[in-house]
Structure to design on (652 residues):
C-alpha cells in the first residue's frame, strides 16, 4: 500500500472544462490519482480524451476548475499565488513537446540556455550547462545550428536537453515520439527510460504499443480514468 | 533583465521579414524625428541667440528716457547710470528722418551720437567697413551697409536729410482746412547735408537697411532740439542678462525717468521666439509619436507571430514581468538606436548647414533664407545639450511607451493556450 509521500504529484477530485461558444465542454471529470516519485508513468488515451489538459494541469500551465493538485504534498495553489506558477515551472518541471517548440531565432545551445537564464542562471553558467546536456544527448557538434538545420530526432533531443537544463524533479512529455520515425522514436524512449531512473517522468501518448515501456500506465477516456496499473 | 535583453536583442536582429523591415522603418522614423527636432531647435536657439546679440549691439543694454519728451539735462543721468553699476553711458538722439538722394526720398532712422562714447560699447570697429571712419565730426555721417547698397552711396558721397520738424516750419495748416507755405510761402528751411565717411555692417538686416549715424550736435540741429539735449541716454552694463539690480537702482535714482532694458523693449519679439521654439518642439515631436505608433504596430504583430514562443517562454519559467520586459525592451532599443542615429544625423546637418543651404539655393535658384525675411546673412545655429537631452529622452520615452500595449498583451497570454496557437 502506497503512502501520499510516495507520490510526487497527486490529483484530488480534479475537474476541468472550457467554455465553448455558448456552452461548456467538460474535459476532465473528478480525477484522483497519484504519480509515483522516480517512476515513469504513461498516460494513454485517444485524441480528445483530455491527456494534454491533464498534462497542462500537472505542469501548472492551467488551474483546475474543481479539486486540487499536490506537488510533494503541497497544494499547487501555494505555488501559483503571486505569479509563483512560472517560478514553480522553471524550477521543478521540464517540458518536452510533440513539435519540439524550439525557438527558431536561436541556436540549439541558446535554446537550451534560455531555460536556465529565465530561472536566474548567468549566461556563462547556462552556456556550460547547455553544452554539457547537449553533449549528453549527442548534439555536441550541433551547438551553433539553428533548429531548422536539425532533423526531427535531433530537435527532440535538443528539446529534452532544454527540459533538463534546470535539473527538474518532474519531466512532462507530450507525445515526444509522435512526429518521429520508429527508429528515432525508439532512441528517444530509451533516453526517457534512462531519465526515469533519477526523476519522475509523466508521458502522454495515444500509442497503445508504448504502454509496456513505462512503470505505470494510466488510461484516460472522455476525461475519466478508465484504469491504471503498473 | 539580462535574459530579457538577450531575447529582445535577438528578436530585433535584422532578418528578411516584413516585421524587421517595419522595425527598420520605425527606427528611421525615430531617427528623422529626432534629427529634425535637433536641427530646428538648434536653428531657433541660434536665431534667438544672434537676435539677442544683435539687439544688444544695436540698442544698448538699457535706455533711460523721459517718455516722449526730450532730456535736457543729460550729465546727471549719465552719472546715475554709472553709479547704478553701468560701465558706460551715452546720450543719443534717435529720430526718423527723410533721406534725399537725388529726387528719391526714403524714411530712415537717424542716430545722433558722440562717437567717442559709443564706439567701443557698440563694437563699431568690428562692423566698420575698411576705408571708413566713425569719428562723426560735424557734417559727417556713417550709413548702414544695406542702406548704402540700396541707395548706391559710397564713402565721400553727400546725403541730404530732412526732418519733420524742419519741414513743418515751412508749412502752415489753416484752421478751416487747407495748406499753404509759412510766411506767405517765403520761409524756406534748408535740410542738412552730410558727407558719408563710413559704412557699418552689423549683420542685422533691418538695422543695416535703415540706420544713419551722425554727430549728436548735428542731430539736435536737424530736429530742432537744444544743444546738449537727447531723446535717450543709453547705458551698458557688465552682464546684459542680469540687470534687475541695476534697473532697480536706476529707477530709484531717477524717479522721473523711464528705465527700460533691451529685454523689456523687445519683450514681444523675445516672447514670440520662445513660444515658437516650444511650438516647434510640440509639433515636430509628432513625427516621433508617429514612429512610436509604428513601433507599437510592429510589436503587436510580433506578439501575434510569436504567441507560441511566448507560451514556451512561460512554460520554461518566464514570468509576466520577464515576458513584458522582452517587448518593452524592444521598444526601448528602437528608441535608443533611432535617437542616437537621429542625434548624430541632426548634428551633422547643423555642422554642414551652410553647404546644404548653398546646394539647395543653387538647385532652386533662390536663397533658402533671404536676409530681408530672416534678418541675418547666414543661418545661425546653436546646439544646446539640454535641448538635445530633452528631445532624446522624449523620443525614448515615446518609443518605450509604444511597447507597453504589446508587452501587456504578451504578458497576459495564457501559456497553455499560447502553446496551442496555430
Amino acid at each position: 500500500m502506497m503512502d501520499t509521500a510516495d507520490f510526487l504529484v497527486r490529483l484530488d477530485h480534479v475537474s476541468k472544462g472550457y467554455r465553448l461558444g455558448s456552452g461548456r465542454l467538460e474535459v476532465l471529470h473528478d480525477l484522483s490519482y497519484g504519480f509515483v516519485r522516480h517512476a515513469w508513468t504513461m498516460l494513454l488515451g485517444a485524441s480528445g480524451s483530455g491527456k494534454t489538459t491533464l498534462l497542462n494541469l500537472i505542469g501548472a500551465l492551467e488551474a483546475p476548475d474543481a479539486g486540487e493538485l499536490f506537488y510533494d504534498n503541497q497544494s499547487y495553489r501555494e505555488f501559483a499565488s503571486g505569479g509563483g506558477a512560472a517560478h514553480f515551472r522553471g524550477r521543478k518541471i521540464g517540458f518536452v513537446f510533440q513539435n519540439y517548440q524550439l525557438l527558431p531565432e536561436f541556436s540549439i545551445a541558446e535554446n537550451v540556455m534560455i531555460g536556465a537564464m529565465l530561472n536566474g542562471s548567468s549566461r556563462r553558467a547556462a552556456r556550460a550547462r547547455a553544452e554539457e546536456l547537449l553533449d549528453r544527448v549527442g548534439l555536441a557538434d550541433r551547438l551553433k545550428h539553428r533548429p531548422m538545420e536539425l532533423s526531427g530526432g535531433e530537435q527532440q533531443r535538443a528539446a529534452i536537453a532544454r527540459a533538463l537544463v534546470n535539473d527538474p524533479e518532474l519531466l512532462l512529455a507530450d507525445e515526444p515520439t509522435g512526429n518521429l520515425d520508429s527508429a528515432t522514436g525508439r532512441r528517444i524512449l530509451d533516453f526517457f527510460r534512462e531519465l526515469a531512473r533519477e526523476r519522475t517522468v509523466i508521458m502522454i501518448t495515444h500509442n497503445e504499443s508504448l504502454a509496456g515501456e513505462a512503470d505505470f500506465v494510466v488510461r484516460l477516456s472522455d476525461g475519466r480514468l478508465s484504469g491504471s496499473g503498473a | 533583465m539580462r535574459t530579457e535583453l538577450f531575447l529582445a536583442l535577438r528578436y530585433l536582429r535584422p532578418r528578411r521579414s516584413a516585421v524587421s523591415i517595419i522595425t527598420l522603418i520605425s527606427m528611421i522614423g525615430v531617427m528623422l524625428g529626432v534629427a529634425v527636432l535637433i536641427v530646428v531647435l538648434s536653428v531657433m536657439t541660434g536665431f534667438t541667440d544672434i537676435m539677442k546679440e544683435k539687439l544688444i549691439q544695436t540698442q544698448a543694454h538699457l535706455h533711460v528716457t523721459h517718455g516722449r519728451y526730450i532730456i535736457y539735462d543729460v550729465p546727471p543721468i549719465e552719472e546715475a547710470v554709472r553709479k547704478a553699476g553701468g560701465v558706460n553711458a551715452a546720450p543719443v538722439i534717435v529720430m526718423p528722418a527723410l533721406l534725399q538722394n537725388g529726387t528719391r526720398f526714403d524714411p530712415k532712422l537717424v542716430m545722433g551720437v558722440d562717437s567717442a562714447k559709443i564706439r567701443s560699447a557698440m563694437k563699431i570697429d568690428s562692423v566698420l567697413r575698411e576705408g571708413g571712419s566713425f569719428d562723426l565730426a560735424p557734417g559727417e555721417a556713417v550709413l548702414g551697409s544695406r542702406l548704402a547698397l540700396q541707395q548706391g552711396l559710397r564713402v565721400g558721397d553727400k546725403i541730404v536729410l530732412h526732418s519733420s520738424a524742419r519741414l513743418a516750419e515751412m508749412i502752415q495748416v489753416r484752421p478751416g482746412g487747407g495748406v499753404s507755405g509759412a510766411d506767405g510761402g517765403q520761409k524756406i528751411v534748408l535740410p542738412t547735408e552730410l558727407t558719408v565717411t563710413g559704412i557699418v555692417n552689423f549683420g542685422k538686416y533691418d538695422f543695416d537697411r535703415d540706420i544713419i549715424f551722425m554727430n549728436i550736435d548735428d542731430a539736435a540741429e536737424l530736429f530742432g532740439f537744444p544743444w546738449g539735449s537727447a531723446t535717450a541716454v543709453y547705458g551698458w552694463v557688465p552682464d546684459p542678462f542680469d540687470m534687475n539690480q541695476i534697473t532697480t537702482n536706476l529707477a530709484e535714482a531717477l524717479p522721473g525717468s523711464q528705465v527700460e532694458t533691451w529685454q523689456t523693449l523687445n519683450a514681444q519679439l523675445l516672447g514670440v521666439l520662445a513660444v515658437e521654439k516650444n511650438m516647434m518642439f510640440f509639433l515636430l515631436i509628432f513625427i516621433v509619436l508617429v514612429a512610436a505608433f509604428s513601433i507599437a504596430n510592429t510589436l503587436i504583430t510580433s506578439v501575434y507571430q510569436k504567441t507560441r514562443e511566448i507560451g514556451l517562454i512561460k512554460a520554461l519559467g518566464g514570468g509576466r514581468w520577464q515576458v513584458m520586459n522582452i517587448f518593452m525592451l524592444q521598444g526601448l532599443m528602437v528608441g535608443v538606436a533611432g535617437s542616437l542615429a537621429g542625434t548624430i544625423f541632426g548634428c551633422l546637418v547643423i555642422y554642414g548647414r551652410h553647404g546644404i543651404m548653398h546646394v539647395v539655393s543653387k538647385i532652386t535658384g533662390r536663397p533658402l533664407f533671404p536676409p530681408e525675411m530672416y534678418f541675418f546673412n547666414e543661418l545661425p545655429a546653436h546646439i544646446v545639450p539640454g535641448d538635445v537631452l530633452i528631445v532624446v529622452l522624449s523620443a525614448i520615452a515615446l518609443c518605450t511607451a509604444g511597447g507597453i500595449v504589446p508587452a501587456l498583451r504578451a504578458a497576459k497570454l495564457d501559456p497553455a493556450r499560447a502553446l496551442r496557437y496555430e
